[in-house]
Amino acid sequence: MRTASHDLSGLLQPPEDVSFGLRATVERRGDAAIIHAHGEVDAYTLPMWRRVLREAATAAVAPGPVVVDASGLGFMACRPMLALAEESEACRRRGVRLCVVGGRLIVARVIDLLDLDALLPIYSSVDDALAGAVPGGHLQESKAG
To answer: DSSP string of 58-92?
Structure first.
């Protein structure tokens, strides 16, 4: 029996502009940038996800936050969540906080699984994240002094 050899390496790499399954927009509100994400963030949409994160991080001005509204996501893989954590660290160095909005267990489970709670606080709404509430919905007390 004869078998033919086929080069399948091109099938394993998605094109740079693959965006099926992910729709994302960046909204500016004052010094803040808000990402509204819908669909799925996985290996195929990772290049687009990274571009959207960079765009939002660039648009935010300290002390304004980058808010990632993930409430419209149906799936988020671990690697895109790690990219989010990497962007959070880069934002912190610039004095910008990055936070996630999402009541869905999908995002919370991945953050918990990867032990990223300190880097990626989860808020119940975009308004809570913008207001500087602590995760859980309580406003942070300002410290004088």
So the answer is: HH--TTSPEEEEEEEEEEE-HHHHHHHHHHHHHHH
User: How does the average pLDDT of the chain come out, rounded?
Assistant: 81
Regarding beta strands 98-101 and 122-123, do their DSSP bridges make them parallel or antiparallel, or are they unpaired? parallel
Element (H, E) at 56: helix 46-59
Highest averaged pLDDT of the listed ranges 31-35, 117-121, 129-133, 134-138? 31-35
Which residues 6+ apart lie within 8 Å of 81 measured at CB?
107, 110, 111, 114, 116, 120
pTM over 0.85? The answer is no
Beta-strand pair 66-76/32-41: parallel
